[in-house]
Amino acid sequence: MTTWWCESAWLDGPVDGVRVTEAGGVITAVEVADPGPGDRRLAGLVLPGLADAHSHAFHRALRGRTHDGGGSFWTWRRQMYAVAARLDPDQYLALARATYAELALAGVTCVGEFSYLHHPPGGGRYADPNTMSEALVHAAADAGVRLTLLDTCYLTGGLDGTPLDDVQQRFSDGDAEAWAARVAALAPRPGLRIGAAVHSVRAVPADQLATVAAAAQGRPLHVHLSEQPAENAAALAATGRTPTALLAEHGVLGPGTTAVHAVHLTADDIATLAATGTGVCACPSTEADLADGIGPFRRLADAGVPLCLGSDQHVRGDLLGEARALEEHQRLVSGERGRFTPAELVTALTAAGHRALGWPDAGRIAVGQRADLVAVRPHSVRTAGCAPGELPLVATAADVGTVVVGGRVVVEDGRHALGDVGALLAAAIGDLR
């Protein structure tokens, strides 16, 4: 048993002087109290663990390269495919381990990895068809974070039936049934959830969607949705439906589903997501970096759609920054401030993200929840002079001092248990560049 005394802890909001008792990685008591002699003290504001609900770990190798030559989402995708074509299991492990450690330094205790890099280049098979997935599982364990592996079905090069190109061959299992059989062989274990994903309506034909949805029953199911206007136009041309309507027709949407991006939605799309109980994961730094646009996230929230947050292509390893950008982008399109309250932002960072990843027992500082604690420093040049309730609006990853995952200290005084994470990233990315 360990007791943690928090200078201030986020319960339903900031509360001063909170003792959190943990046993076996689970919170057994939360009480307002003075510090005791056996308590481990956490200075500043202690948040529940953050959940990064949408990660592509190998995209971390592209940070800083998006701006090169301008272009569009589609020209950026060529750079991304060039990296995807080169990764082998050992390189994938090294890069993902360092990327997840960077996220842990930022307060992330659980990652949702939207994974479609399954097979060797050219579309052959490893001796274990899940070799690349196992690299991600080991990477998360080494980095000290929980993982929801959102194993992704990817079958075609476009809504018009465009064949897969050479790089995309390694993403595909051939059909949805073969994909489901491979995923079924992945063994669950502590710290791991096996989820599923439809890459997009571009990559999974309409007649295969129901098979993916059926295989995902009882597990988190995620899908890229309407990130680009071109996706909407292609769906309308091929099917007469928006991507949202197409997914709804084939049973993909529902309370266990999270739509990622959801930038270019119609009013009917928003109503459909709300009616089906589907959640949405916003990735503001990626949506800005790739010039995707600004999603209707306030309108989605007002309609009752749960919102969570993801780092996606790892433009910055700063989920607190993603929450701040969610608010700032909505200010830009509305001309009004305070579009999301600090409490709404914290929920998106924590409980909503964990639920979307299949961990309803995480994301709150409460009895029965996993003992995930993130201490945010109150006296940095960014946070100095701010009250605890204001820290979610100003703090960055650099202000995270201590991170506890399931009762285990993974980050202390801003240093990860693995050591120099910057050096790990430089080595992993250097091999690819």
Indicate the topology.
Layout: E1 2-10, E2 14-23, E3 26-32, E4 40-48, E5 50-55, H1 73-84, H2 89-105, E6 108-115, H3 131-143, E7 146-153, H4 176-184, E8 192-198, H5 206-215, E9 221-225, H6 229-239, H7 243-249, E10 257-261, H8 267-276, E11 279-282, H9 284-289, H10 297-302, E12 307-309, H11 319-334, H12 342-349, H13 351-356, E13 373-376, E14 400-405, E15 408-412, E16 415-416, H14 421-432
Parallel strand pairs: 1-4, 5-6, 6-7, 7-8, 8-9, 9-10, 10-11, 11-12
Antiparallel strand pairs: 1-2, 2-3, 4-13, 13-14, 14-15, 15-16
Helix pairs in contact: 2-3, 2-14, 4-5, 11-12
Structure description:
The protein has helices at 73-84, 89-105, 131-143, 176-184, 206-215, 229-239, 243-249, 267-276, 284-289, 297-302, 319-334, 342-349, 351-356, 421-432, and strands at 2-10, 14-23, 26-32, 40-48, 50-55, 108-115, 146-153, 192-198, 221-225, 257-261, 279-282, 307-309, 373-376, 400-405, 408-412, 415-416. The protein is 33% helix and 23% strand. The model has no long low-confidence stretch (mean pLDDT 96). The chain is an alpha/beta fold. The strands form 2 sheets. It has an 8-stranded mixed sheet with strand order 3-2-1-4-13-14-15-16, with helices on one face. The protein folds into 2 domains: 2-48 and 370-416, Urease, subunit C, domain 1 (Roll), CATH 2.30.40.10; 50-356, Alpha-Beta Barrel (TIM Barrel).
